[in-house]
Amino acid sequence: MDKNVVIAIVLGALVLIAAVQAVQLFSIKNKLATGQMQTATSGANVQSSAGSGASLPSNLQNLPSMVGGC
Q1: By C-alpha distance, which of 17, 40, 43 is closest to 25?
Q2: pTM, full prediction
Q3: Deepest in the core among 10, 32, 56, 69, taking most CB within 10 A?
Q4: pLDDT in tens, 7-20
């Protein structure tokens, strides 16, 4: 096979995959807009940690020493 034919086939496959993903993305967007689908955090009580005095989880409290911080 000619090198240009192989490149054209691969490029065509990539464009086809991108088109399929775009259709799926618009489908998900429309489902979210109409309320047929909810995000994982839509029903959860999400609070901002800014200014709330929330403490870090125990695995993050010693993070500077884990990565050699000074």
Answers
A1: 17
A2: 0.51
A3: 32
A4: 999 999 999 999 99
